[in-house]
Every structure is written in structure tokens, then in C-alpha cells.
Design a protein that fits this description.
With about 80 residues, the protein is an alpha+beta fold. Helix content is about 25%, strand content about 35%. It has two helices and four strands, in the order βββαβα. The chain has a four-stranded mixed beta sheet with strand order 3-2-1-4, with helices on one face.
């Protein structure tokens, strides 16, 4: 099974999407939106992501993370969080 986390970090919100690519067609399993904080630490982003995955216990099943951002200063923060 292939599971991808897709993050779109905008100026005001970050949107996370969980995709299951194990079938014939990619399936969007879950999404979450939270406020983009330019001063956030890796620990804070990790906290947001763990809350996102907690109900389905998906955190350990990530095969790939795709990141799109218009806030370059958060790229390294998210990499460390992941």
C-alpha cells in the first residue's frame, strides 16, 4: 500500500491531505486545514500532523510527503517535523 501526505502551505492556511494510492485510483482518505504560523517550530507542526493522523493511526504508514509552499521559511520546519 502506498500512502502519501500532501501539504499545501499558504500564507494564511495549511491544508493537509492523506492519499491512499494502493488501489486502481488514488483515494483521498482525509483532509485537515490549520492556520499557517510563520514562527512555528518543527515540534508545533509535528503536533498538528499527529492530531491529523491520530484517529486513523496513519502516522507510521507514510511512504511519501509532497510539500507545496509559498512560505519558504517553513520548508525546513516541515521537513524536520516529518
Amino acid at each position: 500500500m502506498k500512502n502519501w501526505l500532501v501539504l499545501d502551505i499558504g500564507n494564511t492556511h495549511t491544508v493537509a491531505g492523506w492519499y491512499d494510492l494502493g488501489g486502481a485510483e488514488p483515494k483521498l482518505v482525509q483532509t485537515q486545514r490549520f492556520r499557517t504560523d510563520r514562527d512555528a517550530t518543527a515540534d508545533e507542526y509535528r503536533h498538528h500532523l499527529r492530531q491529523f493522523f491520530y484517529p486513523l493511526d496513519l502516522w507510521t504508514q507514510i511512504d511519501r510527503i509532497i510539500l507545496s509552499t509559498v512560505v519558504p521559511s517553513l520548508e525546513l520546519v516541515v521537513r524536520e517535523a516529518a
